[in-house]
Amino acid sequence: MRLLTLFIFLIIISTACSTTTVYIVRHAEKVNETDTTDLTPAGYVRAAALAETLGKAGIDSIFSTPYYRTRQTAQALAKHIGVPVVDYAPKPTEAIVNRVKTIRGKKVLVVGHSNTILEIARGLGAKPTLAKIESGDFDNLFRVTRHHGPFRRSVTFVATTYGQQTAP
User: Fold this and answer.
1) Number of structural domains, the chain?
2) pLDDT tens, position by position, for the chain (168 residues)?
3) Taking the model in full, what pTM does it have?
4) Which CDD domains match (predicted)?
5) Structural domain range at position 84
6) Nearest CA to 22 among 125, 163, 91?
7) Beta strands 107-112 and 18-26: pairing type?
8) Residue 134 domain-assigned?
């Protein structure tokens, strides 16, 4: 009986553990400031670089705001791995943060905007050192790893870049 109880306890503890990795990027280079703008040729190159960078990361879900530039940024990866792009409203960021927080044990990509990606990272418990994303910065790749254990939770944050840096 004791062995069975220990076995059940270990199963409960192991199912309570999970690690979720969330990659957060801003859309790639855009033609102009309108909501319906496309990516520039450099933006399409960057979107392809994102697909190459995350193509073997095991992404399970891709979230994008409904704007052309964000969907186009996500599309190369989505096509490469066969995962659909799911729209989310850019504001309030709490909506996507709360949605991502419900995902356990998966790897997720969120494509947003210069004025939302840091908020999303912070909402997930990360502590980015950047104060803001500059208008010409399109190469940030943030990785937020959320570990849920039976007795504690932890969040790690890694800021890297992907693709080639574009001229200002």
Assistant:
1) 1
2) 676 675 665 555 555 689 999 999 999 999 987 767 899 999 999 999 999 999 999 999 999 999 999 999 999 999 999 999 999 999 999 999 999 999 999 999 999 999 999 999 999 999 999 999 998 999 999 999 999 887 788 999 999 999 977 655
3) 0.88
4) HP_PGM_like
5) 17-161
6) 125
7) parallel
8) yes
